[in-house]
Amino acid sequence: MQKQELITALEKVKPGLANKDFIEQSTSFAFMDGKVITYNDEISISHPVKDLKIEGAVQAEELYQFLSKTKTEEIEITTTDSEVQIKSGKSKAGLTLHSEIKLPLKEMKSQGKWKSLPDGIIEAMKFTMFSCSRDMSKPVLTCVNVTDKYVEASDNFRITRYKIPSISVKSFLIPVTSVRELIKYEVKKIAEGEGWIHFKTEDGTVFSCRIFEDTFPDVSRYMKVKGETVLFPRSIKSLLDQASVFVKEDNKLDEAVTIFISDRNIRVKGKGDAGWFEGEAKIQYKGSPISFSVNPTFLQDILDKLTSCIIGENVMKFSGNNWDHVISLNADDGENKK
């Protein structure tokens, strides 16, 4: 078979691997019924592989690394009761095959019928996920909430709500850790399951997410903000670009800069282990000094769509054609003063 075909399939399911084998075979590729499957208790991903007659589990890292290092494009794969043997040109390798698949994949059999996923749902998840909390003591706030009218997220300090076309499934909560991987796939269909929600791409990849069983708080009353309309200066995006250099994190969602707004002045500050940045510009604002923290990538994404916001009592609101974002503000603690 073509080596690249198998590598492509493995790459599609790799995000479903666990970092450690806390569930037996969760660091393995499982091959069954003409598909390769991964499972890590939060997500499970499967993808069809043509003409590959393997039934069992193979340690993922060794299989993927070996295939990546082989020089030939055509490989020959055979199996014994205990091994997968791969021939590449004049080279051979044998990888341990566990014929019994022990992953708890029965959970997936409750899947309902596939339904079309309206355009914009994945975009809405990507946009709202920046407002998810990292505080596991409030797990419902670490999820993106998907309803039949909108997608929303909040960490108690900010709320993002994105209007979507009607979706023909019940409301569900997806942990942001799963959303980060899901948005990388061009999913076209959706199906409900017991404790899981399933998505499918046109080429047959099935991305399954364990959903969180809880009720997202009603944030509607916080979305109504009245106050002064403030226009951001054009230079704000450049300041965010520069500040973002110093706030790099392994998880991009954890990156944050602090913005201070006072009488006709806006300052952007970023600080990290490698150093710090501070820049300022003029802004048409005459109210009390305020400050807030924000993910620079997310704010830049907002500023690509609009350049103004409403500043009300202790809150700031951005509103686009189909979305709203509300940020809780802090009274300036003197940082704005030179």
Q: Could you provide a short overview of the structure?
A:
The protein has 338 residues and is α+β, with helices and mostly antiparallel strands.
Shape: elongated
Count up the helices: 6
Overall mean confidence score, pLDDT: 94
Number of domains: 3
Q: What is the CATH C level class of the largest domain, in words? A: Alpha Beta
Q: Give the topology string: H per helix, E per strand.
A: HEEEEHEEEEHEEEEHEEEEHEEEEHEEEE
What's the story with the biggest beta sheet?
11 strands, antiparallel
What does this structure look like?
The chain is 16% helix and 37% strand. With 338 residues, the chain is of the alpha+beta class. It folds into three domains: 3-108, DNA Polymerase III, subunit A, domain 2 (DNA Polymerase III, Chain A, domain 2); 113-221, DNA Polymerase III, subunit A, domain 2 (DNA Polymerase III, Chain A, domain 2, Roll); 224-331, DNA Polymerase III, subunit A, domain 2 (DNA Polymerase III, Chain A, domain 2), CATH 3.10.150.10. α5 (236-244) packs antiparallel against α6 (296-305). The longest helix has 11 residues, at 3-13. The protein is elongated, with a radius of gyration of 24 Å.
Topology:
Blueprint: H1 3-13, E1 28-32, E2 35-39, E3 43-48, E4 56-59, H2 60-69, E5 76-79, E6 83-88, E7 91-98, E8 115-116, H3 121-128, E9 143-146, E10 150-154, E11 158-163, E12 172-175, H4 176-182, E13 187-192, E14 196-201, E15 206-210, E16 228-231, H5 236-244, E17 257-262, E18 265-272, E19 275-282, E20 290-294, H6 296-305, E21 308-311, E22 315-319, E23 323-328, E24 330-331
Antiparallel strand pairs: 1-2, 1-4, 2-3, 3-15, 4-7, 5-6, 6-7, 8-13, 9-10, 9-12, 10-11, 11-23, 13-14, 14-15, 16-21, 17-18, 17-20, 18-19, 20-24, 21-22, 22-23
